[in-house]
Structure formats: C-alpha cells, structure tokens
Amino acid sequence: MSNTPSNKPTNLVRREQLKLSAKLLSFALLLTEIDIAWGAKILGVRIWPSEDYTRITLESDTPLPISQQVLSNPDRLVVDVQGLQLNATLKDLVAKVKPNDPYVSQIRVGQYQPTVVRLVFDLKEPITPQLFTLNPIGEYQYRMVFDLYPTAPPDPLMELVKSSARKESALVKANEEVDQIAQFATKKEAPSAPVMQAIPEVKPAPKTAKYQRLITIAIDAGHGGEDPGAIGSMGSKEKHVVLSVAKRLREKIDGESYMRSFLTRDGDYFVPLHVRVQKARSVQADLFVSIHADAFIETNAKGASVFALSQMGASSTTARWMANKENASDLIGGINIKTQDRQVANLLLDMSTSAQIKDSLQVGNSVLRQIGGFAPLHKGNVEQASFAVLKAPDIPSILVETAFISNPQEEVKLNDEAYQDRIADAILRGIKDYFSKNPPVAKRGNA
User: Fold this and answer.
1) Which one of 115, 119, 396, 409 has the minimum C-beta count within 10 Å?
2) 48-66 burial, b if ≥16 CB within 10 A, otherwise e?
3) What is the distance between the alpha carbons of residues 124 and 142, in angstroms, rounded to a whole number?
4) What gap in Å lies between CA 398 and CA 384, rounded to an integer?
5) Strand 287-292 and strand 305-309: pairing?
6) Distance CA 310, CA 212 (A)
7) What is the separation of C-alpha 270 from the centre of its chain, rounded to a whole number of angstroms?
C-alpha cells in the first residue's frame, strides 16, 4: 500500500512551519533595524552659513533614515528623521541659526510622531537642497548633511566687476594720461595741469610695466567648515589661520591700483577642491594662490614652502605626502559624490598644461624668494606634486605653506598677527615681481 496520502499532512505542516519561520525571521530583522534606528544617538549639530550655501550637519553614531519635502508660501524645507526622540542636542540646533544666515531664518524641531523627529527650516528665499549621508572618517561618525543652495546663485564675475568698477576706471584714466604725457613729450609741449594731477586714492602703477587692465588674483584659504585642516598642539586650527592670512593678502592686493582680489571662501565654511578651481576660472583669474599651514608626521618639521603642480610625480616624499593629505580634504569636509560635476573632474585631470606649470613655477619662485627674506624655508626651491586644487588648466597656480602648524614654535608664529602680515606682504611682493616681468594679456569677455 502506498504511504503518499499519509505524508500529505506532514508536508503541509512542514510548509506552514517554514512560512512561519520566514515570517518570524523577517520580523526579527525588522525589529533589529528599528532597534538600530531607535538607538541612534545624535553626537552633534552644526550650521555653516555662507553666501554660496548654508550647510547643516547632524552627526550620529548610526545612519539616519530621512524623508524631505520643499514647500512654498512661505518657503521652507521639511525633514522627517526616523527613529529619533527629541533631545537637548537636537533642540540646540534652533539656537545655532545666525541672524546673518543668507538662507535660513529659523529652524523648528518637534516630535512629529513617537519615532519621528521633524525639522522645519524656514527659508529667506527659495533654495535647492542637497541631502546626503557621509560615512565615518577621521574624528567624525555618520553625518547627515543638508546643503541649501540658492535657486538663483549670484554671478561671481559680475559681483567682482561691480566691486572694482571704480578702480578699473581709475586705471583706464591713468593709462590715458600716460599716453597724453608721452604725446606731449614727443611734441615738446607741456601737459596741462589736470593731466599732471595724481589719481586720488590709488597707488601709481609701477613704471616698469604699463597695465591695460586690472590683474585678478584668486586667493584660496584652505579647508573650512567641517574640514578644520591641521590642528596644532595648542588647538590652533589651520582653517582659521589661513583665512586670516588670506584676508590680509586681499586687503594688500586691493590697495594696489592695478590689482583686484577674489576669495574662494571668505568665512568658515567648506568648499570642495574642484569648486575652488571653478570659482577662480569663473572670475577669469590671472593667478590662483592657495594658502595653507599644514602638519607633518614629525613635529620638528619647519619652514615655509611653495608648491606647483606636477604631472610627472612628486618632487619629494614630503611633497607627495602633503598632496595626498590635502587631496583628502573633500572626504573630511564632506563632498556630495552623487552631484559632483564629472565634466569638471575630468577637466581638472586632463587639461592641466605644461605652460600653466611653467608659469606656476615662475611665480612660485618669486614668492618663495620673498618669504625666504625673513622666514626659514623648508626647501629652497618650489616643490611639485599632484595637488587637486592646483589643476586649473589655464591659470598659474601655487600653494603656499606658510609654516608647519604641527611644530609648536611655528604654531606660535602662525597665530602672531605680525607674522601673518609679513607672510601676506611677501606673497604680494612675489606676485608683483612676477607680473612686472609677465604682464597679462587682454582679458576675454567683459572683465
């Protein structure tokens, strides 16, 4: 007799048991996920406002699942964070909004549901948000990043042209008067009194060169925002020191009759490396100067350095180490990989020219000589390595290491205003020396 019929109930029971086991396993996994999310701990909240964009970061010990929506009338961004309960750290976000934030007027937080915290960003104007998560790196755990960009960003070139219009007119007038004086001298006639009058409020252009237009210098203060750069033994942060030097250099450049400056960042916020290059190209800069105060694995490393780009490998082990460290800034500062402009990335990798490197070495040597006149140098020549921030294909670009912040004695100097001022002076003298021998050609476009 066949025993098949008698096995049917047993098979059915086994199938039901397997289904039940699968459901129990799925439920257990779901509970685990809920438990992980529910157990998420907010480690810190930070806001970095700037004219470019405002960044808000929530740092936690586990990734935070979120949903978001942009609403209008009035403009606001609504973000729901799953698996959290409102606590003092999250509430602290409200007090961190500054009155001068260009895009956020206030932040409201509340327990929207038992396991959902709602953040409402009240906005001053329409924005385009970018939300993304950063994995742990350095001293950071998981970071949920909210980058709020204006839907109608300002044109940096037009802003620069407007701000320097008066100086541009003065330079044109000075050139016209020089031409008139030359014509009078040829005719052996004396120029009229108005022609001989000095142009007010600007220094005269050097006699060794006649500049037909303003020279634009892009000044790049390294690091910023989520990326502090190197940190000295006294707690000094590179991002603060170099911004101070950059602002001093800006003031000195703007005091020259034939120059104008542009800062890639003018506050404490993060700018990706390729965006720094983009900014310099957008204002059609004649020179890009990136300012740093780096650290090294040995605390006795000392002296200022100047670097240019290399397409053939680093000129020393130290140069390679520094380039690798600087190129990691995007990971620490927090770049949104999904929206990174691939065309820009390819441009920076493929279009750097030998002519750009040759010019960079010339201006680098001029600056290095000036710094060496009062400060010790780490190396007596311009070093080269593959710094991503120096890869503008059509702009001479140098990176100035003002000193080693990892050296306790040099950290003290870097915090000294007099030393910062002398470094800025030396960089300016080197720039002036370079352009006196290499006056810029006519500008393209309306700049």
Assistant:
1) 409
2) bbbbbbbbbbbbbeebbbb
3) 29
4) 10
5) unpaired
6) 32
7) 5
Amino acid type, 266: D
Distance between CA 378 and CA 363 in Å, rounded? 18
The neighbour count for residue 112, using CB atoms within 10 Å, is 15
Burial class of residue 276 (count of CB atoms within 10 Å of its CB; 0-12, 13-18, 19+):
buried
Peptide bond connecting 204 to the previous residue in cis, omega within 30 degrees of 0: no
* Distance (Å, whole) CA 245 – CA 367: 15
Helix 156-163, helix 273-282: angle, nearest 10: 50
In sequence order, the 6+-apart residues with CB closer than 8 A to the CB of 66 are 79, 80, 81, 82, 131, 144
pLDDT tens string, the chain, 447 residues long: the values are 444 455 555 666 666 666 666 555 554 444 444 333 456 789 999 999 999 999 999 999 999 899 999 999 999 999 999 988 888 999 999 999 999 999 999 999 999 998 899 999 999 999 999 999 999 999 999 999 999 999 999 899 999 999 899 888 888 887 777 666 666 666 655 555 554 454 445 555 554 446 888 999 999 999 999 999 999 999 999 999 999 999 999 999 999 999 999 999 999 999 999 999 999 999 999 999 999 998 888 888 899 999 999 877 788 888 888 888 898 999 999 988 776 555 455 544 445 578 899 999 999 999 999 999 999 999 999 999 999 999 888 899 999 999 999 999 999 999 999 999 999 999 999 999 999 999 887 665 545
Distances from the Cα of 281 to the Cαs of 156, 383, 395, 435, in angstroms?
A: 10, 24, 8, 19
Phi, psi of 377 (to 5 degrees): -110, 145
**Is residue 420 within 8 Å of 248, Cβ to Cβ?**
yes
Helix (H) / strand (E) containing 45: strand 42-48
**How many residues in the chain?**
447
CA distance 230 to 281: 27
